[in-house]
Every structure is written in structure tokens, then in C-alpha cells.
Amino acid sequence: MNSSFSIRPLDPFADAGLLHGWVTHPKAAFWMMQEASLPDVEREYMAISASEHHDAFIGEYEGEPAFLMERYDPAHVELVGLYDAQPGDVGMHFLVAPTDKPVHGFTRAVITAVMETLFADPATRRVVVEPDVRNTAVHRLNEAVGFEIVEKIAKPEKDAYLSVCTRESFHAAVGAAL
Question: Please, what's the b/e burial string for 35-58 (b: 16 or more CB within 10 A of its CB; e: otherwise)?
Fold first, then answer.
């Protein structure tokens, strides 16, 4: 992983204020928490923290909080009954913190760091995502790091493109050595 990035476990209480500002920001519309109160955010991340199938992390850039990363087991969370989970599948969500001073290429660097983190576990064979079909920006980012759209699926809260990225397709896309 780029040495400017680090990832630490999210603390649902200590990080709730920070997260609240991120998930309710207009740029986070696809996170679907625009109307969430601070206690709503605390509850959501306490539930994730308590789950054996879902984890949340704060990504830092040069020591400052810069993004949220969630890792989940799609056989138990988010995609149950919507696709045939395979051994080694890991689900992922990420959200870059809003900023008044965007840096060109930063979001791509974040998703690359997230994918490197997930593939650092040798048990991870594929990363699975389910972004909203309308989220064209994330579709471009996903493609840039090796995701391929498998199919359009109907989730209760959205229509999504089920997409997968193998370790090999990630490394081919970003030019990293296996």
C-alpha cells in the first residue's frame, strides 16, 4: 500500500462525529444516509462493529482521516440471495471524505489502497461490490482497478451493478506484481 495511506479499525463512538459529516454530505448521496442524525450514525457503526460478517475502517492519508472502508462477507451481508457467493469473496464499500480542495487522482489512489488492503489477505480471491447503477463516477473507478460488471441486481434500496474483481484483474489493471 502507498506509504502515505494507513487503515485502522473504526471506533463507532470516537469516529461518529467525523463519519456523520461525511455520510450526510451532498457528495455522499449514494451512501443513503443524507438524513441520518449523529445517533443514527453511531447505531449503524455499532451494529457493524458487533457483526461477525462486517467490519468498518478509517483510512488515513498522511495521518489525517480521509476515507471510510467497509469489508463484509457477501454470503451473509448485503448480497444474500442475490448472487452465488464463492469461497474467498469479500464485499467492499468505500467513501472518500468530502473536501473543499480536491486532489486530482486522490479517489483512485484511495480505491487502490482499499483493494491492496483487501487482497493482502491471501484468503481473498475476489472483491465484490454493488454500486448504484446511477453512480457513474464509481463505475469508472471500479473499472480502473479491474472490476467487471456481472449483472444488474435489484436490492431493496437500489438497483445495483454487481461487479467483481479478481486478484489477477486488479494487478493487471494497476500494474502491480502478484
Answer: ebeeeebbebbeebeeeeebebbb
Report the C-alpha gap between 171 and 94 in whole angstroms.
19
Q: Across the chain, what does the average pLDDT equal?
A: 92
Q: Beta strand 64-72 with 54-61: parallel, antiparallel or unpaired?
A: antiparallel
Q: Length of the chain in residues, anyone?
A: 178
Q: What's the pLDDT tens digit per position in 70-91?
A: 999 999 998 998 999 999 999 9
Joined together, the cell numbers standing for residue 84 give 452465488
Contact status, residue 132 vs residue 158, Cβ threshold 8 Å: yes
Placement of cell 473504526 in the chain: 10
Cell of 148: 467487471
3-class DSSP string for the chain: CCCCEEEEECCCCCCHHHHHHHHCCHHHHHHCCCCCCHHHHHHHHHHHHHCCCEEEEEEEECCEEEEEEEEECCCCCCCCCCCCCCCCEEEEEEEECCCCCCCCCHHHHHHHHHHHHHHCCCCCCEEEECCECCCHHHHHHHHHCCCEEEEEEECCCCEEEEEEEEHHHHHHHHCCCC
